[in-house]
């Protein structure tokens, strides 16, 4: 590892202490204890927003609008939309439903992407692309409704890789980086640019790739801790992430590394963070099973506590029935009062249902409008800045010792500061600190940290079901 171990171990100690204190605070976030004075709000994400969070992963089909909203309601810090191939969105027509506020990007026969203004401060739009220009055009198409764009560099499915997209980009770093650079150059400063990769078989090659990616000026990097050939049933190699986190911290730009792979929920995120040192954790299948997994107290008996409300909200938002049915089918959680027979009966009813009307008995008399309002209220109750678990940047800048720039993957003996001219920080970048400025990622005093949390997008070429998608 080409980094300064003593500096880094110090930072990890601080990080661990901070996260322990932070997480316990977040667990009790509904208590009325007075909060430290708030800073002025930013209306857009910064690279700090990618730290100290637990995020909803991008999921084709399973990451539909209602799921993202429930995830936010239950404490997800940021939510990624499902991967949408660049060309798919280019000719979509944007329509706003005056009743619900739902924004649909409609293709010829279906909605390519749906969103709602309430999720905009937390929404990262994921692009599948193998072309810088198309990626930029796609991002520009949805710009007004999102906070960040993410490039999918991890999907190993042939429909993605045959066109040079997804995991194919991992072995074409020139193209990968040219897409990220183009996005960073063409996006306004208030839109973050991030990437989601998989591990390469060798750690050394992974670090070389990571270095190039970070140098494009991205705001955060998600690492799905599996290689391209690994399937979701293979345990994620999360222990490999610490070396990557160390390396990125050694680069000194304060860029967050987000762990992805095998995290089950909020409690489990502590374990993952401890093992990996990651700045944040991203959850896919845990949230697919139970979108409330972001809470310190996730819903039990989802058949009663989640399914009826999810169906009502989905109907109210006119989420396509087949998509809703697919998502509800994935829900499962700890059963306390619900019997196996009750759960089985629900799934039987669902499997025979051809529309929301068939689920009336499950949904009950309430309309989804009230459930939706509840979601809106809980998202609005906690300001976006708090919701994102931000750290106090001023204290970061003034009170913490910056990590010593160390080295680069291909030239371990060349200090990073010698390569800083190569780091391109677009003018007016959203990054509060230009890459290489040495901004630390955590404060030295935990008391300087504030913030906590409250407690019809079938989009991409998706030939197969969720299990195979999990390997994206
Ligand atoms: C149903 C489903 C759809 C997925 N779609 C995407 C996607 O659109 N883009 C992406 O980068 N990864 C996608 N993935 C992969 C996840 O984001 C994540 O990397 C993977 O499931 C590992 O995380 P986990 O162990 O928490 O499930 C998908 C996974 C699942 C289960």
TrEMBL record:
Pfam families per record: Dus
Name the cofactor(s). FMN
Q: Name the residue ranges with Polar residues bias.
A: 459-472
User: Which N-terminal residues, if any, form the signal peptide?
Assistant: none
Catalyzed reactions: a 5,6-dihydrouridine in mRNA + NAD(+) = a uridine in mRNA + NADH + H(+); a 5,6-dihydrouridine in mRNA + NADP(+) = a uridine in mRNA + NADPH + H(+)
Q: Does the keyword tRNA processing apply?
A: yes
- Region entry Disordered, spans: 392-472
List residues of the DUS-like FMN-binding domain.
Answer: 56-367
Keywords of the record: Flavoprotein, FMN, mRNA processing, Oxidoreductase, tRNA processing
**Biological-process GO terms, alphabetical:** mRNA processing
**SUPFAM superfamilies given for it?**
FMN-linked oxidoreductases (SSF51395)
Q: Name one GO cellular component term.
A: cytoplasm
Gene Ontology MF terms: flavin adenine dinucleotide binding; tRNA dihydrouridine synthase activity
The answer, when asked if Secreted is one of the entry's keywords, is no
User: What protein am I looking at?
Assistant: DUS-like FMN-binding domain-containing protein
**Species per Swiss-Prot/TrEMBL record:** Cyclocybe aegerita (Black poplar mushroom)
Q: Upper taxonomic classification of the species? A: Eukaryota, Fungi, Dikarya, Basidiomycota, Agaricomycotina
């Amino acid at each position: 590892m080409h980094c300064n171990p003593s500096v880094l171990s110090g930072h990890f100690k601080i990080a661990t202490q901070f996260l322990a204190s932070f997480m316990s605070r977040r667990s009790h976030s509904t208590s009325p204890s007075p909060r430290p004075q708030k800073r002025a709000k930013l209306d857009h994400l910064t690279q700090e927003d990618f730290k100290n969070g637990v995020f909803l992963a991008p999921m084709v089909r399973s990451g539909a609008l209602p799921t993202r909203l429930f995830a936010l309601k239950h404490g997800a810090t940021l939510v990624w939309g499902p991967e949408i191939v660049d060309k798919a969105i280019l000719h979509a027509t944007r329509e706003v439903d005056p009743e619900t506020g739902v924004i649909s990007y409609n293709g010829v026969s279906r909605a390519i992407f749906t969103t709602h203004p309430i999720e905009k401060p937390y929404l990262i739009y994921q692009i599948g692309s193998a072309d810088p220009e198309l990626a930029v055009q796609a991002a520009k198409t949805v710009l007004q409704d999102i906070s960040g764009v993410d490039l999918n560099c991890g999907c190993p499915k042939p429909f993605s890789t045959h066109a040079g997209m997804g995991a194919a980009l991992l072995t074409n770093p020139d193209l990968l980086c040219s897409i990220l650079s183009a996005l960073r150059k063409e996006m306004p400063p208030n839109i973050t640019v991030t990437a989601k990769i998989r591990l390469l078989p060798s750690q050394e090659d992974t670090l070389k790739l990571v270095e190039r990616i970070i140098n494009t000026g991205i705001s955060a990097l998600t690492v799905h801790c599996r290689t391209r050939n690994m399937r979701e049933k293979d345990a994620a190699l999360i222990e490999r992430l610490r070396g990557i986190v160390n390396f990125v911290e050694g680069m000194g730009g304060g860029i967050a590394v987000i762990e992805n792979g095998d995290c089950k929920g909020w409690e489990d995120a502590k374990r993952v963070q401890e093992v990996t040192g990651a700045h944040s954790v991203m959850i896919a299948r845990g949230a697919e099973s139970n979108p409330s997994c972001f809470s310190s107290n996730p819903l039990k008996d989802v058949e009663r506590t989640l399914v009826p409300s999810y169906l009502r909200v989905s109907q109210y938002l006119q989420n396509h029935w087949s998509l809703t049915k697919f998502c509800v089918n994935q829900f499962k959680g700890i059963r306390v009062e619900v019997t196996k027979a009750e759960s089985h009966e629900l799934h039987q009813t669902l499997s025979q249902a051809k529309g929301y009307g068939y689920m009336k008995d499950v949904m009950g008399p309430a309309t989804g409008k009230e459930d939706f309002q509840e979601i809106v209220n809980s998202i609005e109750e906690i300001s976006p800045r708090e919701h994102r678990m931000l750290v106090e940047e001023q204290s970061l800048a003034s009170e913490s010792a910056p990590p010593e720039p160390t080295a680069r993957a291909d030239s371990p003996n060349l200090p990073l500061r010698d390569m800083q001219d190569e780091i391109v920080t677009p003018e007016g970048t959203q990054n509060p600190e230009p890459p290489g400025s040495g901004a630390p990622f955590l404060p030295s005093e935990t008391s300087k940290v504030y913030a906590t949390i409250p407690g019809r997008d079938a989009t991409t070429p998706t030939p197969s079901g969720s299990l195979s998608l999990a390997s994206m």
